[in-house]
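User: Hey, quick favor. My workstation is busy. Could you predict this chain's structure for me?
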Amino acid sequence: MTSTDDALTTASGSLIPGSPLTLEDVPALTALLNRIDVAERLEQPADEQGLREMLTMPGTDLARDTRAVRADDDASGAILGAVIVDVHRAVDRDGRVRCQLMGGVDPDRRREGIGTALLDWAEARARELVDERHPAGAAAVLRVSGGRDPRPGDDPAAPGGGIDVRPLLERRGYHRARSWLTMLRTLPGEALDLPVPTGVEVRAPHDEDAEATRLAHLAAFADHWGSAPVPPERWNSWWTSHTARRAQSTIALDETGTVLAYVVASEDIPGELHVALVGTRPEARGRGLARAVLARTIAAAAEAGYARAKLEVDAESLTGAARLYGALGFVQDSVVATFEKPLA
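Assistant: No problem, here it is.
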C-alpha cells in the first residue's frame, strides 16, 4: 500500500499514488523502458539483468532515490512512469555537482501529469541529496535526456524522439546543453592496420587491470564536459557487469604497467559491440594510441562474429574524436540531446 507521504502532485494539484522501486519491479520496469524505447526509436532496449545491476549499483538507495507510478489495476503489476535520482559525490571539471534524473512515462499515458509529478519529486530529492553530500554549498546542475533528434527525412511532428519530453523540459527551465552523436561501423568492414607505438603493449585487459584502467579514465576525462570522477566501487560494478566484454576491450600500457589508453566494451544488444568508453591520458595524446586500441577492439569484435560496433561521442568535443572514429569507418546514425538546468 502506498503511503500519503509517497503521493505525487500533478500540475493541476491532484495527487497520484507513488512508491519506491524495488527489485521485484525489475520485470515491470524493463517492460516500461522497452515501451519507451520503441516509441522513441532509441534502439537502446533494456534487459532485466542489466536493470537489476543498475538498481543495485553502489550508492543507490531505492527507497529514497526512486519513485514509480503504478497502474490502478494492482494485479497487472504495470509501471506507468518511474524516475531514478543519481547525485554524484564528486564535482565535475567546472566545480558543479551532477544530478542525473533517469526514467520516463508510458507512451500511452503521457499528458496526464505523471511526468510533471515525477520531475517535481526528482528535483526535490536531488536538492536533498546535494545538501547531504555537499554541505559546503557546491553549485549543482540537473541533467536529463532530451531524446533523439529527427533523422533526415523524418517528419519532425511524428511521435517519437524528443518531441514528447522536450516541451515539458523547456517549460520547466531546462535547455539543450549537449548533443551526442551515435556512430555505427559494420563488421568486419574494411580491414584496419593495428599500429603499436614503440614501447607500448596493446592487449585485452585482465581482471587485475580494473583499477589501472579506472585511473587512466579519470585522467583522460578530467577535462571533458560534465565528467566527474568515478569511485572504485561503481567502476568495479561496470567492470564486472554481465554485459562487459573483456576480450573485446583493449588497453595500451607502457613499460611500467601504466594504462595510457583504453577501450571499455560491452554487449548491450546481441550481435552489437558497444564501445562504451574510449580515452587517452593527456600526456600520452598525439601518439596514435587511441587509434591503436580502437583498431584492436574492432578487429577482436569482427573475429568474435559481431555484426556491428556502436559508440557515442560528444558532438562539441574539441578532442577530434569524431574525426578519428570516422577515419576508422564509423558513420553517424543519430543525435541524442542532454538537457540541463541549474539546481536552485
